[in-house]
Amino acid sequence: MSQFTLAGRGILAAHQIEAMAAAGLVRPAQAFAVGQIQPASLDLRLGVRAWRMRASFLPGLERKVEQCIENLALHEIDLSSGAVLETGCVYVAELMETLALPRDIAAAANPKSSTGRIDVFTRVITDHSREFDLIEAGYNGKLYAEISPRTFPILARAGSRLSQVRFRHGHARLDDAGHHALHAREKLVTSAEPSIAGGVAVSVDLSGFGGTSLIGYRAKRHTGLIDVDKLAAHDVLDFWEPIHAGKKRDLVLDPGEFYILASKEAVRVPPDHAAEMTPFDPLVGEFRVHYAGFFDPGFGAAEAGGEGSRAVLEVRSHDVPFIVEDGQIVGRLVYEKMAELPKSLYGAGLGSNYQAQGLKLSKHFKAPVWRVDLT
Q1: What percent of the chain has pLDDT over 90?
Q2: For domain 176-337, which architecture applies?
Q3: What's the rounded Cα separation, in Å, for the pair 340 and 168?
Q4: What are phi and psi of 235, to 5 degrees?
Q5: What is the domain partition of the chain in residue ranges?
């Protein structure tokens, strides 16, 4: 077991995560898989055991997760050979990674991009926690994933990677002045004068992509299974209804429906920073954008082959129909400094699925070919 020390404050880079594992601070049940450590995050793998739960829960300060499972589980599921997780159900799975964090390192989890894009709601739970996805500094114990497929039933197995975690040393989140200074240096989004208030504003593009009138996709109901570990294995039209631009360039979000849209701005995350899409303020729109909010260093960066990358937006309206219009602000990117410069960037030879993306579905689907609309 090696020694682990940190000098800089910020989000830990891949080589620092590797050093944490070597020091016994991150403990995988099996050796890390290829590509599991990303430039600024670690993918978390499902373990062998999962449970169908009566309801979602948080353990609170007095309990461990396993105590809640004993009280709330309906039955246990063996994931060793794969299992179907149905829509509308809540599951909890053990994760292969456990933590023994030092007192000055905290962590935060999020669904992976591919998980969010198929509308699988997943959150990480720790023992004695009062919040999902937040792992307190100094935490020592198991990790669990709550999994709730919203639209498509999924096939998952031990080793499937639905969630990711970032490690943070100290406070390095930029304030408004910091965002202005970084944008002046790096041009974070392609807007001439972006709105910066609690992050950099991102708006929705309802004008059409790639020379067509296609603006997004609406998820179909009552579809087949999505195997979360298979790439380009599913036909788009079996799961998605394409949406095309109308004359008014707006879109009515139906309550309870799930949409894939994309930002009007191209987004850039410079190598010495990471970013996160924050949930949109419900005071200006009763809808949720982007369940999977991590953007790694190098996303959209020309030096990593991603000049012109859009942010794909996972959108769901709540309770009432809501109209979004072309160019309307739908989210904000919050940037944080990296503790050290990553040795590899997102998309730079890492097999990243969404570098240089426009409007793009998850990696599970075959690339669609749409006709060009010349009208």
Answers
A1: 75
A2: Distorted Sandwich (2.70)
A3: 11
A4: -80, 135
A5: 10-169, 176-337
Averaged pLDDT for residues 314-341: 91
pLDDT (tens digit per residue) in 91-105: 999 999 999 999 999
What pTM value is reported for the model?
0.92
Tell me how far apart the alpha carbons of residues 333 and 23 are, in angstroms, rounded to a whole number. 33
Instruction: Render pLDDT for 183-226 as a digit per residue (tens, 0 to 9).
Output: 999 999 998 889 999 999 999 999 998 788 999 999 999 999 99
286 pLDDT band, cuts 50/70/90, is low
pLDDT of 371 higher than 60? no
Burial class, 155, CB count within 10 angstroms (exposed 0-12 / middle 13-18 / buried 19+): middle
The answer, yes or no, to whether residue 372 has pLDDT greater than 50, is no
> Is residue 131 within 8 Å of 60, Cβ to Cβ?
no
| CATH code of the domain made up of 10-169 | 2.70.40.10
Distance CA 3, CA 20 (A): 9
